[in-house]
Write a structure and sequence with these properties.
about 20% helix, alpha/beta, 4 helices, single chain, 5-stranded parallel sheet
C-alpha cells in the first residue's frame, strides 16, 4: 500500500497530517523563515537558500520576500523570472514556472484541492493538481491561479484575476473567472 506522501506525489487523495509530510513541511518552513528574514545585501546567500528550498531555480531568478510555499521541492522556476513580494506557491503538486516570467505582488499559485463531499472533507482528505506557467507570462498583482491550470507563453493575466481554466498562449486575460479579452502578436 502506498504511503500518504506517495499518494500526495501521485496526485491521489491523501491525509496531510502524515508524519513524513509534516516533516517535509517543517523543513520548508525553516528554509522560508531563513529566506524571508535574510539580509538584502547578500544576494548569494538568498540564492543558496532558494536553491535548497526549491526543486530547481534558473539563472537570474529574483524572488522578493516574503515568499511562501508548502514544500518547495515541487517548484521549478525558469531563468530570468521575477517573483515579487508576498507570493504564495502552494506546491502540493508540481508548479512549473517558465523563463522570463513576471509575477506581481501577492500572486497565489494554488495546487491543493479538497473533496466537495462533506464526509471526506471532514476526514481531512485532500489532493492536488499541477500548475504550469509558460515562458514570458506576466501575472498581475493579486492574481490567483487554481489547481490544474496551464497558462500559455506570452500571456498576460490582469491584476486580481482568478484563473480557473487553462489560458492559451498570446492573450490578455482578465476577470473572475479569467477570460481572454484580447489576442497578442507573438514575438
Amino acid at each position: 500500500m502506498a504511503s500518504q506522501k506517495e499518494r500526495m506525489l501521485a496526485g491521489d487523495l491523501y491525509l496531510a497530517d502524515d508524519p513524513e509530510i509534516v516533516s517535509d513541511a517543517r523543513r520548508s518552513a525553516r528554509l522560508m523563515e531563513r529566506f524571508n528574514t535574510s539580509e538584502t545585501d547578500d544576494p548569494e546567500h538568498r540564492r543558496r537558500l532558494l536553491a535548497e528550498l526549491l526543486g530547481s531555480i534558473g539563472d537570474g531568478v529574483g524572488v522578493r520576500p516574503p515568499f511562501y510555499c508548502d514544500f518547495g521541492y515541487h517548484i521549478s522556476i525558469g531563468a530570468g523570472t521575477f517573483v515579487n513580494y508576498g507570493a504564495v506557491l502552494l506546491d502540493v503538486a508540481p508548479i512549473t514556472i517558465g523563463a522570463d516570467v513576471q509575477i506581481g505582488p501577492n500572486v497565489q499559485l494554488l495546487t491543493p484541492t479538497h473533496p466537495t463531499e462533506p464526509e471526506p472533507r471532514r476526514a481531512k482528505w485532500e489532493a492536488a493538481k499541477p500548475i504550469t506557467i509558460g515562458d514570458n507570462v506576466w501575472l498581475g498583482a493579486g492574481a490567483i491561479v487554481l489547481a490544474g491550470v496551464t497558462i500559455g507563453e506570452n500571456t498576460v493575466v490582469g491584476a486580481g484575476a482568478v484563473v480557473t481554466r487553462d489560458l492559451p498562449a498570446n492573450v490578455v486575460a482578465l476577470g473572475n473567472p479569467a477570460r481572454p479579452t484580447r489576442h497578442l502578436t507573438p514575438p
